[in-house]
Amino acid sequence: MNTICGLKPSVYPCFKLKTENDKLRAAKSELQRQHDSLTDEKDEILKDKKRQIKDTERWYITIY
């Protein structure tokens, strides 16, 4: 008799687990991509904020 995971062909929970595992891996990859994108965006915002602070400091120095 042909078996997979030691079970009869009519019941393949290991396939269900593999499918669920594949879905979870894909979701994890998507979440990691979003995390990386948001981290990059945060870094750009911080750089811009620092630039604005420096510009403001220069402006105050030239006025006073």
Estimated share of beta-strand residues? under 5%
The structure class reads: mainly alpha
Distance between the termini: 91 Å
Q: Extract low-pLDDT stretches.
A: none
Annotation, overall tally of beta strands: 0
The share of residues in helices is over 70%
Oligomer: single chain
Give the integer mean of the pLDDT values. Answer: 86
User: So how many helices?
Assistant: 1
The largest sheet, given as strand count, sense and whether it forms a barrel, is: none
Alpha-carbon Rg, integer? 27 Å
Element pattern in H and E: H
C-alpha geometry? rod-shaped
Overview of this protein structure:
Keywords: Coiled coil. Residues 14-48 form a coiled coil. The chain is an all-alpha fold and 64 residues long. The chain has a domain at 38-64. It contains 1 helix and no strands. The protein has one helix at 13-63. The N and C termini lie far apart (91 Å).
